[in-house]
Q: What sequence folds into this?
């Protein structure tokens, strides 16, 4: 009778669970394709390492540790669940033969305790410590899960304890349950009443597990089932290479995203795998600046939009994505700094989704006015400044020599100068310094003069794919006509395009940042710095040099070689905080930022106290941080220095 | 309903300028060229009329360095066809509106539109003379300083702007030549994908029956603005600067 009943509720619950799960996963089968099945071994080992070592989770210590406790306990306690259902459904089933009464029993007892501690830590975190990253997450959902998980463990322990009371002797392998059994006996429980209680706790245990199971597909705890897959299907392409727009399926297909089915299945899987942990939100410069963007809310809103569209949850099923589920301002707020993606424990890809939706807006011509001006300048002149191409190399006029034209003669190093370094008056000074340094060191280098176009890095991130291809192809064609060994640039955005984006268009180069080249020149004795005038400085990692292309060490080694003492800001290297200029934001109105990210960053540097210089290695950063220091009126305490200036002052 | 819209490149004057050797023109060697912003408005207005009235839009330009790119842009923006009017650079002394008007007019006669839109001014059409010249050459009605155009069968209703915020509405018979000041909506952004798709398109030439006319006036000298004595810079702290400004204002008699 009991067996029959158990079969009935189990099969019933499984069916409901499967249906609830399928309703949410079904849209993936109608979405666009994404190639995420290559390199299975690489995928598997990476995913297992991420899960097993909790690599990303442990960057947030408290949460990482508690998650590790809950996660391992869950794995161990699944043996207890197996035991409960196995013995109930198949009378005679027992894990005893493999140690279910000995070492497995011991592990279950220990991990039950660990699980309870982990849950208590989680509740403490959520209700007492309340980190800001939870703002916007669904607290009710989390609370219910704590209660259900706690209920499962407690009923399990009580079931074991009542069995011990029934047997009349302590269980050598179940210390926790044995202590609990003494407590029960203390309340007057007899072997007789224990037998009834045992049955009650068994059923409670079963019912809570099944409730949990049914609840999961509609909860953020879906990640228990999906996170591993999301990790497995993570992108393996270079970090700096955006996925192209979806392949057009038919002539009329615009390749843009109007409905949820226009996303790839991986995009949709991302939204369903989000744990609402808010790590992404806590590192987002746009969110910190008060802009209407939180990467977490973006993913949650897309998920809720998808489920509403599917009729799984209530709401307007016809709400458009852009201007409905997600506002245009939200999409334009992103600096594409990648901090969110770097920190997300389930490797959710925020930036490609934002750019894909921007592409849709660009196709519709829906650009904010300032951005439209810059983009139109690109189309007519090949740079955002709207300056004639002929003036691109004007900065060379005041040099002590004339750089080679790499289009006419072979060079060792081809210097891809970039827009800011070429046209911005403040950045031009630094560009000239780099040129004089290279000249002094006897480097055989040349530039492309008016043959250079903007690299298209940020144009691509604004969402104008066609314009990016036009600019990139012009550069690739020009470079094809030149003879050189390596490309050098001072601009991390150009570096990213040349190194990570152009290979997708079939062009592969050996690309280096000037920090590396200057360091090499010093090491080779071609430049001799004096090291007795060391400053105490801090250094800002540019997103497109550091997080995107791993260029963390060369700038630091260079500063050390010049005798400077580096004091790191709390947010450094992978965790660097964006200046706010990336992803085309430099061409947009920054009224969306209540506090500009660059000013937030300068305040972080000031907190360090004893530093005098804020060192940068990107022409845009020179502009951004000089302005930020001016706006904050702290010019007497801190000065911006580009690496080129440091080297120039030191070798003069 | 057929609309012809004229597109002209003009030198970008926001950059540092140099004079040509004879001192009568700017040196065009180092400066860039861009679509005249009023012609940009004319193109947008043409496309808006296409969208509201189902017209076909043809963009035309005199052949020059960059004119094909400019016309591709017009196609990407929504023009249905585009033509370059060939002009042998050696044959022509001047590219003034008076010189080129016969070529545009001949093209217009060939294309036989109901409406011709051209930007009211450009920096080489300072008095907005091209539109009246075209009216004279074609013998069609012509109206300039227009900020609104609506079309109905055989008629165009336009709004003409005057100084001081006044305006008048006119109804004119088509075909008509309009010197446009602003379109009814700002020019739209055209995604690079549309430009890319047009990369391999050849803009055809439109052979016309006409020759440039001679100019009746010539510039004699051109001078760059003198920037050496435009401003006085004050040094010192805020108090010093305030005192200097006060003294200067007193000296000039602005304050007692
Ligand atoms: S890329 Fe940077 S700005 Fe954009 S959502 Fe992620 S963290 Fe925020
Ligand atoms: S996107 Fe990733 S980091 Fe952000 S809330 Fe979801 S799981 Fe956490």
A:
């Amino acid at each position: 009778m009991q067996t029959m009943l158990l079969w009935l509720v189990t099969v019933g619950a499984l069916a409901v669970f499967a249906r609830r799960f399928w309703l949410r996963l079904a849209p993936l089968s109608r979405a666009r394709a994404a190639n995420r099945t290559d390199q299975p071994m690489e995928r598997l080992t990476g995913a297992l390492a991420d899960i097993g070592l909790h690599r990303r989770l442990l960057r947030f210590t408290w949460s990482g540790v508690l998650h590790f406790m809950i996660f391992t306990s869950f794995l161990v306690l699944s043996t207890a669940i197996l035991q409960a259902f196995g013995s109930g459904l198949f009378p005679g089933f027992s894990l005893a033969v493999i140690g279910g009464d000995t070492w497995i029993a011991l592990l279950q007892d220990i991990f039950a305790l660990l699980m309870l501690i982990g849950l208590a830590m989680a509740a403490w975190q959520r209700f007492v410590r309340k980190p800001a990253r939870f703002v916007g997450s669904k607290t009710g959902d989390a609370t219910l899960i704590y209660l259900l998980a706690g209920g499962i463990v407690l009923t399990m322990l009580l079931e074991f304890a009542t069995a011990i009371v029934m047997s009349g002797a302590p269980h050598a392998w179940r210390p926790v349950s044995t202590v609990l059994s003494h407590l029960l006996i203390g309340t007057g429980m007899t072997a007789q009443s224990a037998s009834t209680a045992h049955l009650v706790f068994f059923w409670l245990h079963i019912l809570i597990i099944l409730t949990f199971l049914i609840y999961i597909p509609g909860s953020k705890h879906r990640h228990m089932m999906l996170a591993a897959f999301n990790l497995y299907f993570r992108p393996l392409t270079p970090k700096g290479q955006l996925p192209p727009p979806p392949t057009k399926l038919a002539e009329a297909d615009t390749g843009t995203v109007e409905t949820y089915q226009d996303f790839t299945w991986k995009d949709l899987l991302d939204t369903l795998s989000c744990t609402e942990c808010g790590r992404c939100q806590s590192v987002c410069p746009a969110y910190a600046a008060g802009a209407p963007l939180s990467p977490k809310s973006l993913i949650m809103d897309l998920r809720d939009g998808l489920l509403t569209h599917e009729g799984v949850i209530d709401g307007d099923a016809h709400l458009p994505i852009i201007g409905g589920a997600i506002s245009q301002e939200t999409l334009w707020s992103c600096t594409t700094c990648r901090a969110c993606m770097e920190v997300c424990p389930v490797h959710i890809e925020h930036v490609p989704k934002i750019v894909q939706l921007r592409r849709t807006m660009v196709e519709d011509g829906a650009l904010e006015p300032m951005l439209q001006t810059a983009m139109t300048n690109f189309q007519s002149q090949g740079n955002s400044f709207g300056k004639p191409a002929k003036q691109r190399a004007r900065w060379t006029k005041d040099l002590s020599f004339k750089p080679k034209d790499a289009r006419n003669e072979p060079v060792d190093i081809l210097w891809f100068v970039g827009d800011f370094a070429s046209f911005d008056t403040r950045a031009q000074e630094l560009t000239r310094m780099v040129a004089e340094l290279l000249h002094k060191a006897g480097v055989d280098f040349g530039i492309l003069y008016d043959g250079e176009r903007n690299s298209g890095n940020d144009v691509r991130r604004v969402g104008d794919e066609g314009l990016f291809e036009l600019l990139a192809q012009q550069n690739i064609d020009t470079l094809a006509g030149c003879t050189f060994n390596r490309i050098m640039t001072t601009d991390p955005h150009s570096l990213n395009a040349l190194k990570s984006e152009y290979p997708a268009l079939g062009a592969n180069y050996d690309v280096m940042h000037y920090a590396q080249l200057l360091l090499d020149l010093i090491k080779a004795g071609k430049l001799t710095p004096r090291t007795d005038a060391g400053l105490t400085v801090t250094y800002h990692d540019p997103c497109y040099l550091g997080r995107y292309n791993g260029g963390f060490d060369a700038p630091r080694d260079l500063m050390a070689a010049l005798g400077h003492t580096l004091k790191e800001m709390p947010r450094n290297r992978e965790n660097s905080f964006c200046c706010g200029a990336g992803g085309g934001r430099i061409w947009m109105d920054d009224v969306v930022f209540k506090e500009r990210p660059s000013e937030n960053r300068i305040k972080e540097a000031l907190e360090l106290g004893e530093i005098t210089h804020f060192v940068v290695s990107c022409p845009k950063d020179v502009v951004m941080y000089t302005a930020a220091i001016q706006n904050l009126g702290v010019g007497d305490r801190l000065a911006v220095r580009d690496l080129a200036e440091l080297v120039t002052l030191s070798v003069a | 309903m057929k609309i012809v819209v004229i597109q002209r490149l003009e030198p970008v004057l926001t950059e540092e300028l140099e004079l040509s050797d004879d001192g009568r023109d700017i040196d065009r060697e180092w400066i860039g060229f861009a679509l005249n912003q009023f012609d940009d408005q004319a193109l947008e207005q043409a496309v808006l009329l296409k969208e509201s009235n189902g017209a076909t839009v043809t963009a035309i330009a005199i052949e020059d360095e960059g004119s094909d790119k400019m016309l591709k842009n017009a196609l990407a923006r929504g023009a249905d066809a585009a033509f370059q009017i060939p002009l042998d650079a050696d044959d022509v002394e001047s590219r003034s509106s008076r010189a080129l008007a016969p070529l545009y007019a001949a093209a217009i006669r060939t294309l036989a539109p109901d409406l011709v839109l051209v930007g009211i001014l450009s920096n080489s059409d300072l008095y907005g003379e091209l539109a009246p010249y075209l009216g004279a050459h074609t013998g069609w009605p012509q109206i300039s300083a227009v900020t609104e155009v609506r079309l109905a069968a055989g008629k165009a209703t336009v709004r003409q702007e005057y100084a001081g915020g006044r305006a008048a509405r006119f109804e004119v018979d088509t075909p008509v030549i309009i010197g446009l000041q602003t379109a009814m909506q700002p020019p739209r952004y055209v995604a690079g994908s549309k430009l890319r798709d047009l990369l391999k398109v050849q803009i055809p030439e439109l052979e016309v029956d006409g020759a440039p006319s001679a100019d009746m006036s010539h510039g004699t000298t051109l001078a760059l603005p003198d920037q050496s004595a435009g401003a006085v810079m004050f040094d010192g702290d805020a108090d010093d600067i305030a005192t200097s400004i006060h003294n200067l204002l007193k000296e000039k008699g602005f304050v007692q």
User: Anything to note?
Assistant: The first strand of chain A starts at residue 404 and ends at 405. Chain A has three domains: 2-230, 235-363, 371-651. Chain A has a mean pLDDT of 94.
